[in-house]
Amino acid sequence: MTWSYASAGELTAAMRSGEVSSVELVDEAIDRIERDDKAINAICVPGFERARAAAREADKARARGEDLPLLGIPVTVKESYNVAGLPTTWGMPAFRNYIADADALAVARLRAAGAVVLGKTNVPLMLADLQSFNEVYGTTNNPWDLNRTPGGSSGGSAAALAAGFGTLSIGSDIGGSLRTPAHFCGVYAHKPSFGLVPGRGHVPPPAPALPTDLDLAVVGPLARTAADLALLLDVMAGPDPLTLGVAYKLDMPPARHDRLADFRVLVLDEHPLIPTGSAVKAGVQRVAEALTTAGATVERETPLLPDLTEAAILYTEMLMATLAATHPAERYEAIKAHAGGLSPDDRSFDAAQLRGAVWSHRDWIQANIRRELHRERWRNLFADFDAVICPITPTPAFPHERNLDLGARQIDIDGTSYPFGAQLVWAGLATMPGLPATAIPAGRSEEGLPVGVQLIGPMFEDRTTLRLAELLEQEIGGFQPPQREGH
What we know:
Order of helices and strands: HHEHEHEEEHEHEEHEHEHHHHEEEHEEH
CATH topology: Amidase signature (AS) enzymes
Helix content: 25-40%
Structural class: alpha/beta
Radius of gyration: 21 Å
């Protein structure tokens, strides 16, 4: 029997019964990686001998009667997390030989839960792309179509799961970097509520691993089933012990409902700033029909929804303010000069990117006040609804794009080109206010590519969208192993 696509729950049951050992699971995963990853290039930093040693220790622990949540389960970790003794580069050639001296907190929690780390997964340079390629480790291909991207920046993690390289993985998200790869590769991912999972140790080299949260950014889980997603989030979530004096949300409330019929859902498939492709619209519709058939309350519009254009512009400005804070001085000054030449009446998406990149602290404070007004609107909306169903990006996985100038790229949506960066508006819908969002498989396109949608929920009510994902998985199905010519 092969275990490559078994869930964490299935593997735990098999190990408890003695049907399989962690050593056997890890050996099978390594064999599969060595056989198939030459074509996919998902695992950029293998740690196979370390994994075998950890698997032997996991089997000994189980023989002693220990039964941790992830005991003996093979997992992968996004390259951007520090893993003691392994390189952390964020795709930067200058740090090719930078070796982390301690685990990121999320990695330490995986180990404490008994997980066995197989290795690290590929990312784009500085995590700044919806693809996953860099000069250090090369290009990661989508297991469904090697000519297409698996997404980014957690593309290596999603590709690894789709290819059967380990049972679980962890990634990060500031612009859809968990959700987009899940959508492109047909797996599950969860963007937690902001502040729920500490990001200490998820930092570019040689930055110190401090207990701080970068604005908008989160770290979170990827899996092949919704239940595994919830299991892994429970392992990762909780306050950083270095910041226990800070007011964190320590306990996630239980899911609002346990039956699809009880959910009240708002469905969105149109955005004023960019069209939604037919394949993604069909995926949203498939989920909406399943909810309707199950007896859920499904609405298509409400006056409670925050203004989508205003939300997208504010997200774009805040994203660029966060990312540009570490730009080299000469690049920052060039952007500042360009932004200074903008007309005050220019409220375009491109103008928002430039203005946000050179905000003053006063500008950011004023923007944060606007964000709080959006959060208040979301609170009001979630008094009447339990979740919002909407796209993650307008299209399935696109062909590899080699142009490093993101501003010059275009995205093809049903035969018409649009600015590449505009597709981030759907990711930003949940990111800007810090809401939880669960990415789920929702069928395939006419070309046979996976299509996912996201379930957005109330702040810190992550269990609600995760439970909705489990219930939908029972209705419409979930992950399917990749099918491509010659595979």
